[in-house]
Amino acid sequence: MEARTPLTLITGSLGCGKTTLVRRILRAGGRRMAVLMNEFGEIPIDSRVIQGENIEIVELAGGCVCCSMTGEFEAAIREIIEKVRPECIIVEATGLAEADALVFEVEDNLPDVRLDCVVCIVDAYMSVRHPHVGHTARNHLRAAHIVLINKIDLVATADVKEVEARVRGLNRNAVLFKTVGCDVDPLLLFGLELENHPVFTSRRGEPEFQSFVFTSRVLLDDRKFHKLVSELPECVYRAKGFARFPGGSYLFNFVVGRVDIEAFPADRTQLVFIGRGLNTFREAILAGLKGCEVRDEL
Ligand SMILES: Nc1nc2c(ncn2[C@@H]2O[C@H](COP(=O)(O)OP(=O)(O)OP(=O)(O)O)[C@@H](O)[C@H]2O)c(=O)[nH]1
């Protein structure tokens, strides 16, 4: 009988650093890995970011593996094993996926796969600004074997301690790391044989998230764009994608009011906005973005 393929599940709220961790693992190399990404939003931004790093990718855009796309999730895993025969599989679950349902899915419906490790990333900055731990976040934390308290560069040491206490209140056994840019040794995330991981019954009820996309082949005025982004309503929780200005194109990341931008090749502007109650602001934001367009492409 062939050995089961180990699967590492990476969970955590929107924008906490999951893709950052996946990129770190891929850079470290060493194993034939397959990465499965599940996106909330209509375009698979994360998968595009990963492309070119010599890795197999299966994109499940526009849904949530633990509920509406459960069937596809299993099929994707089976296909990865059949076609790629990876030494391990990494699943980056959407910030909205329920970790317990994913764990259940892997253990009960995927006999060729062995759950190696559940990593939960906590966004320390977010956790300080919004200390209430919602149902999904609690669920992620309780199911975790390893917890990264990430973005500690953005908060005071005393605040990190408070975040740590909250994490410990929900999960006493997980191995805990405090990180910047998820700078944990990827080796620590693999090779763990964890037999007794907790599984929790699934319960829905988190407020609805909504998303929309802005796409443009016209260059944007960067000054206007940055002004618009700095004035986004509070309900915009996460925005990401590619933005093209006269000076170049960029990978754009926005998490609860913080903007990160790095040079990145892109042939158009393509941005996803995610938030609670976002539909009320959708038209205004789209009109604002349209207003940033400066000139047609040459
Ligand atoms: N200051 C700071 N920024 C970080 C850290 N880790 C990640 N980031 C930034 O946070 C933003 C979001 O990181 P991602 O890795 O894309 O987060 P994600 O969890 O994959 O996001 P979703 O796929 O939308 O859920 C990016 O701009 C990262 O560069 C950190 O430790 N400190």
Please, could you describe this protein's structure?
The structure is a single chain. By secondary structure, the chain is α/β, with parallel strands linked by helices. The chain folds into 2 domains: 5-189, Rossmann fold, CATH 3.40.50.300; 209-295, 2-Layer Sandwich (Hypothetical Protein Yjia, Chain: A,domain 2). 31% of the residues lie in helices and 30% in strands. The protein contains 9 helices and 14 strands. It has helices at 18-28, 45-50, 70-84, 99-109, 124-129, 135-143, 157-170, 222-230, 279-290, and strands at 5-12, 33-38, 56-60, 88-92, 113-123, 146-150, 175-179, 209-216, 219-220, 236-245, 248-255, 258-263, 269-276, 293-295. The longest helix is centred in the first third of the chain and has 15 residues, at 70-84. Bound molecules: guanosine-5'-triphosphate. Guanosine-5'-triphosphate is lined by residues 12, 14-20, 46, 95, 150-151, 153-154, 180-182, 238, 240, 253, 255, 260. Keywords: Chaperone, Hydrolase, Nucleotide-binding.
